[in-house]
Design brief:
Length: about 160
């Protein structure tokens, strides 16, 4: 995986798959690539965050589809599956039954999976967050998911550079 100078100089086609593992939105990937070269990691993360703020509802929904349900493992063997397992490592198997029930209620309400940047969160904390978000209007919840996608993308970009 490239460090920042290598990231700045790598051919776009080499980086495109890695960036798509961070956030599976082609327009976001293009925006991050177009901003190169970045002076430092903070500039890269700021540009990525700005690009993520502009996601359309359809782009958010498409990006959600690339994530497993909270409490479930991602399929496939790519970096995104490994990153997801790391990100959800604090979500204990003991909460799996309650998470499955809560996930079902969320999906019934919003029509898509519940998504949260789970890094550092326990299963109990995830359940509290999920429950609190069930009261959101659908349009507000989609923007909350957009912010969670941006947080996940930032964490994953850091992994791309390490």
């Amino acid at each position: 995986m490239p460090d920042l100078p290598a990231f700045n100089s790598a051919p776009p086609d080499e980086l495109r798959p890695l960036l798509a593992e961070c956030l599976a939105v082609p327009r976001w990937v293009d925006a991050v690539l177009a901003g190169r070269p970045y002076a430092d990691v903070e500039a890269l993360l700021a540009a990525a965050d700005r690009a993520a703020e502009e996601l359309s509802d359809d782009e958010v929904r498409a990006a959600i589809a690339g994530h497993p349900r909270i409490g479930e493992r991602a399929t496939g063997g790519g970096p995104g599956a490994r990153w997801s397992a790391d990100e959800q490592s604090g979500v204990a198997a003991a909460a799996a039954g309650r998470l499955a029930t809560a996930n079902a209620a969320y999906e019934e309400r919003f029509g898509h999976i519940y998504l949260v940047c789970a890094t550092g969160l326990s299963g109990e904390r995830v359940l509290v967050d999920l429950d609190s978000r069930l009261g959101n209007p659908p349009d507000v919840e989609l923007r909350v998911v957009n912010r969670e996608l941006a947080r996940i993308a930032a964490l994953r970009l850091g992994k791309v550079l390490s």
